Amino acid sequence: APGYTRFSIPLLPVPELRTILSDVADFAQTRGVLLDKGGFISGESNADLKRNAKFAAVLAGGGNGNEIELWLGDTLSLAGYATFCLRTQRAANMWVVAQRMHHPSAQAMVTACLLSFFASRPVSQCIIFGSECLTAGEGGLLQRVVGALGERCVCHLDTELEKIHEVARRISAVGSGTPAASNTILFFPAVDRSRETEAVFRCIYSPPRGMGTQALAPELAKKAALCESLRTILEYGPQVGVHTFVLSESTMIFERQSVAQFNLCVAFRLTDSESKTFVGGGEAAGLADNFALCLDKGTSPMAVKFRPYCSIEEAWLDRQLDNVKKTIRI
């Protein structure tokens, strides 16, 4: 409540911790107070502290060497951490599928990915299409990252999709002898919430060919040009350090040829049919709310169950942003 000091209980055994937090929540709700979720990951507190410290050390130290590691969460195994390696090779693009109820966790996980990306590659950039989605409550964490990193994060509305032509031209220029200036991530945080963006993504490999009536010809030509630029970005971008991240609510937004351009996949709970399509089996259909599957099709056909980073505390995030800003000299 207003005027009270925030506190944490970091070292209690899990059963006692759950009981206390449940009592605190009940007490707050009877007084009309909504509690935010404290801590970086909710769960076993001792392990959470260690994961926070490990991830913070990576961010402060500028990554783990030459490779770009995207930190996702905890694999529930002896190895302990779920990461993707973002390599300069074909199909090194990431697709995250999460139903609306899981978008806060998915957005928090992508926030961790972006932090680790910038820590690993100080000379880098993130271009976001559909930035209006970041103004919603679930996009608050990403909005803080975008605001803190300034010109390193460029935001466009979903009505400004034509800006992708600039990225496609830059990729094509690299093949002509122009060196890539930096690593770049194109992030689409809500593909299937924008009618225009979804329409283009659904037909990347089958753009409109017939012009129909004269009145429709300009719109169809515009759509065909966007499809061509997206094909260039997905197919040739990763090889020159330009990677595409997509967050969607459904696996049905892409054609089969488009799906093949995404080797890095994260699935929160899906329907049985979507799970089989996305990760090759029904494992994602029975996932609990706090879990997801990650699959790197370039290294293994097996999906790995993990606990995504979620509930990022604002004070913790601000400290890590300070570390990253020092690394990239903002």
Description of the molecule:
This protein has helices at residues 14-30, 45-61, 103-120, 140-149, 164-174, 195-201, 217-236, 256-259, 272-279, 314-328; strands at 68-74, 82-86, 94-97, 124-129, 153-156, 183-188, 242-248, 264-267, 292-296, 304-308. The protein contains ten helices and ten strands. Mean pLDDT is 77; it is low at 9-14 and 35-46. It has a ten-stranded mixed sheet. With 330 residues, it is α/β, with parallel strands linked by helices.
Brief account:
With 330 residues, the protein is of the alpha/beta class.
The percentage of residues in β strands lies in 15-25%
Secondary structure tally: strands: 10
Q: What is the 3D shape?
A: globular
Task: Please tell me the overall pLDDT.
Answer: 77
Q: Helix segment count? A: 10
Low-confidence stretches: 9-14, 35-46
Distance between the termini: 36 Å
Across the major sheet, the strand order is 2-1-10-9-8-3-7-6-4-5
**DSSP helix fraction:** 25-40%
- What kind of sheet is the major sheet? 10 strands, mixed
Main features:
330 residues, alpha/beta, ten-stranded mixed sheet, globular
Task: Describe the secondary structure blueprint for this structure.
Blueprint lengths: L13 H17 L14 H17 L6 E7 L7 E5 L7 E4 L5 H18 L3 E6 L10 H10 L3 E4 L7 H11 L8 E6 L6 H7 L15 H20 L5 E7 L7 H4 L4 E4 L4 H8 L12 E5 L7 E5 L5 H15 L2
Parallel strand pairs: 3-7, 3-8, 4-5, 4-6, 6-7
Antiparallel strand pairs: 1-2, 1-10, 8-9, 9-10
Helix pairs in contact: 2-3, 2-10, 4-10, 5-7
